[in-house]
Specification:
The chain is an alpha/beta fold and 327 residues long. The chain contains 12 helices and 7 strands. The strands form 2 sheets. The chain has a 5-stranded parallel sheet, with helices on both faces. It has a two-stranded antiparallel sheet with strand order 1-2. 27% of the residues are buried.
Length: 327
């Protein structure tokens, strides 16, 4: 599971909280049983003292007397078990009701992450992706080429069908090669031609494989940068760190944000930082490549043209086609 430092820290705090609650629950159960028979507390104190004595004798090499101590310890355990059952409690009443009995709410079994930690990691990256409610209706198997015509316009190199077929192929390869080769994608085309849907298909596949993905619309992304730079907002600062570090960043609707020198400089900084870290990024936009320089800068055009696979999606608005078909 590839987690950002911030995400890992969040999970560790959650496990620390669960362990504190486990200890409090065990202590409360002890108090409850002790209040009904004071002998139980004395037995626990004797057992704790014997455990220390055993350890001391092991360290000093006095192994000969360990059998006697072991016999005494077993007798105390049996006495304790008899008292607890006589009071109507199960013999493992003192054991907390762990959320995960396999790792006892530590998140680890030995040096390996427990299955519960892996599942919580998946849940976290889904929750923080801004895609949680979208991905249930997303997947490569739901990307239909039926909405794209095979008729090619004179000025176009590919028909809408061929362009979509190529984009689907490139997207699948992007997923299969993820983590092995560094690649970025730039989807552009008119509204409703499948840019965002393909980005979400990739996101779903990668998150299901345990990678961290986060998606922002361009206005939301630059709002975070603005809050970090001008308002010194701590939450925005943390989010910015995650934007730089997340396995895959998706920027949707680039070009719909308020433009200006700040936006251009922050976009250039972010793109450059992720390229240096070899962290893949997907951009979807209505902007043609030649419009990048006009809206932003030559530097940003250079980064995108040099480090991104550019995919042009053609055709009409699929959402409108679906509405018309539903009538």
């Amino acid at each position: 599971m590839a987690l950002s430092n911030m995400q890992y820290d969040m999970l560790r705090r959650e496990y620390d909280r669960m362990q504190r609650e486990d200890r409090e629950e065990a202590a409360e159960r002890k108090r409850e049983v002790y209040s009904k028979d004071g002998r139980l507390q004395k037995i626990d104190e004797q057992m704790a003292s014997l455990a220390v004595t055993q350890a001391e004798k092991l360290l000093s090499g006095e192994a000969d007397s360990l059998n006697e101590l072991h016999t005494h310890m077993e007798a105390l355990r049996e006495e304790k078990k008899g008292i607890i059952t006589s009071l109507g409690y199960d013999e493992d009443f003192f054991v907390p009701a762990y959320r995960c009995p396999d790792c006892k709410d530590t998140g680890y079994i030995g040096a390996e992450r427990c299955h519960c930690f892996v599942q919580r990691s998946l849940d976290l990256v889904y929750a923080q992706s801004n895609l949680q409610g979208v991905l249930a209706e997303t997947g490569f198997d739901r990307f239909s080429l039926d909405y794209y015509t095979k008729e090619k316009k004179d000025q176009e190199r590919l028909s809408p069908y061929e362009a979509a077929e190529l984009a689907l192929h490139v997207s699948r390869e992007f997923v299969e090669n993820f983590g092995q080769t560094f690649q970025n994608l730039y989807f552009y085309g008119n509204t409703g031609v499948g840019k965002t849907f393909l980005s979400n298909c990739i996101a779903k596949e990668l998150m299901d494989r345990g990678h961290s993905v986060v998606s922002f619309t361009a206005p939301n992304l630059f709002d975070i940068f603005e809050k970090d730079v001008f308002q010194k907002d701590p939450e925005a600062k943390a989010l910015r760190g995650n934007i730089y570090d997340v396995d895959l960043l998706i920027i949707d609707d680039l070009g719909t944000e308020i433009g200006g020198s700040f936006t251009s400089s922050q976009l250039a900084l972010m793109l450059n930082e992720r390229i240096l870290r070899e962290k893949p990024t997907i951009i979807s936009t209505n902007l043609k490549m030649q419009e990048i320089t006009d809206r932003y800068s030559e530097r940003i055009f250079s980064r995108i043209s040099g480090y991104y696979t550019v995919m042009h999606l053609l055709g009409g608005d699929i959402r409108m086609q679906k509405k018309l078909q539903a009538r």
